[in-house]
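Can you give me the bound-state structure? Components:
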Amino acid sequence: MDKSAYPMFTRRQLMITSAMLAGGAALGGLSKGAAAQVKDMDMWYWGEQELPGLQKYVNDSVAKYTAANVKPMLQDTAVVISQFQTAAAAGNAPDVQYLWNGIYHMESVWLGYVRGLKSLIKPEVLAASNPTLLSHFGGDIYRTGWYPLPMFWCYNKTLFEKAGLDPEAPPKTWDELLVTCDKLKSSGVEALGGGIQDGYWSEWYLTHSLPQQLDSLGEAVELFIGDKDFRDPKYHQHWVKLAELKSKGFLNKDMSSLELYPGIDLVVAGKLGIGQTIGTRLPADSKATGGKIGYMTMPVFGTGKLAATPIVDVQGLGISANAEDPAAAAAFLEFLQSPDQLKAFWEATNWLPSNTTFDSSVIQDPSVRGLWENWGLKPNISNVTNLMPGQFYERAAIPTGQQIVSGAITGEQAGELAANTAKEWKDFNPDMVENYRKWVKDLSSPT
Amino acid sequence: MTPSSRLIPYLYVLPLAALLGFVFGYPLLRIFEFSFKMVRGIDGPWIGFRNYELILGHSLFWESVLHNLQLLLAIPVMVAISLIVAVLLSERVAGWKLYRIIVFVPFVLAIPIIAVVMKRMFQFSGPVNEMLRWMSLDFMALDWIGSSDVALWTVMILIIWRESALGIILFLARLLSLDESMIEAAKIDGANWWQRLWHIILPEMRGVIEFFVVVSVITMLAAVFSYIYIMGGGRGGPGTSTEVVELYIFNALIRSSLPGIASAASVMLFLVTGVLIFLLFRVRRRAEAA
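Here's the bound-state model for the whole set.
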């Protein structure tokens, strides 16, 4: 073989080349390391469906956030829970996950799919976001609040005026409500109701009425799992009251065949005096009526400590147990609670973020401002129906209201049905009973 | 033919058979497996027949079964309507081809679309009741979808209207393929319209009627979810007055987080439907043999 046909490669050259290659590799590694400083994170969320503008807000926020590369994905309503749980079970859950309140995220907590936030998020940030008591379990908190959903009774001020009622003084007690309904009816309008065909009115009625006889939210859970008894008159009085409204002819006649939102539209359209609604509707409804939609807590009949307390449900965000860097995920959640981000949330959605430090001077509509001051900033409780096992919700919470409104059952029979359903739930879910009982302890602490 | 050449056709169908086995067989096996487990998340402990015991002792399950059985009452009505309309169309009245298209339209439209429209029409203040009141028939202006006593029958009206369209087309196709000479011969022998229908046309249509009945039984037992979901406010309501087994399964899986219960109920529905189909075809085979 003729060696001259090949370039000569001395040992010295070999060492130099090796050193250069090693240096290059090290530099490459360093630059990779530098790139790895910017974490990649996944965020699965929901909410554009109920709060238009949220998707834009999320996209703008992740673009603005420089500490990590957050990749958001808007989830479909039907799979918010199942998609997360399946991914979590496979070890592929996103770092940040949207979490509905109460049992809708607590089941994932019990399955070990969600991290506690007390050690990850600054206490003052966590508290200001109002994750609500329903996110507490075993002494930890599992969500930050994201945006609130105040729930209240609404009424049409114009119809109140026509009926000779003071539009600025809605009824506060049950007796006052009956007088109000009577006057509305006498003036030729249907007094109270909405649409219950899809069942949500039934749920919202429980949201407002059941707490009136309760001293704590833990007491509600004890009812739902059968440790307390719905057959006790104290615990089904709210259904007796609904039956009273029905028997006195105060509910709108087409209530059973209308769905929730067309029912609320009746109040806005001036065809129904009083209804149940949710805060996110208020800006548009107030605008449509020239500020003639009033709001109030449900008139009081009960004697429980929670009676007359405003209801504020809160949607939230949590960190999955699969998050590779929980501290980085927590930093992103804190970023979303920063003053600039709260302002950006308002600008993108025209709705309130869940944070007591939010600068509410940007709210122009007096109704919305009043709602924020009275519902958002004052003591409030969350939606008690978020504590129900799904089986109780479907079998008792929804059907009882529907059947009372259609005249098929009495309030007492509703209590019987609810008690039987609670027993059924225990039979079907023996492994869940202890989790609920532990949750009662968290929920029974001062609200 | 060598043994290896006998195997070749099976090799050709093997990929498709494997694909079908994966798509249908695997989920079916998993459903059977889940029906014996208390599933939380994506798996759970083995609990034997406990899910079946719970379902069979659950009043709502039996209420759902009863509603499915009540829906079977729609089948004779569907058969009768389909027969009458098909026979009338087969007489080739003026514009019969246009009528044929019109009567088939409900079957082409997606169930959610017609159910939503029907739901609006049957609201307490909807067009149906408004028309009845206008005709001074106030006593007939019922709360069609809001009353527990009436709601299931309202759903049945919708099912009859839509599903009869399939019957009409099937029956009409059979009628148009009948041997006209037999009918002509009957006419010459002096058989009137009713006699021709009863003694010639119906016996000739027996096969297609049986087929339609079998399809309808399966529909009523295992394919009315869309009707119930839309008309019953997504919940089989009011109350549980329109709940059927399919919705019971859906609620157990999606709303009660009980995949084990949903699987056990699915297995029962699968077996019952399978047995019914088997029996119906066996009856038909015996009849053909006789």
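A couple of observations. DSSP finds 18 helices and ten strands in chain A. The first strand of chain A starts at residue 39 and ends at 45.
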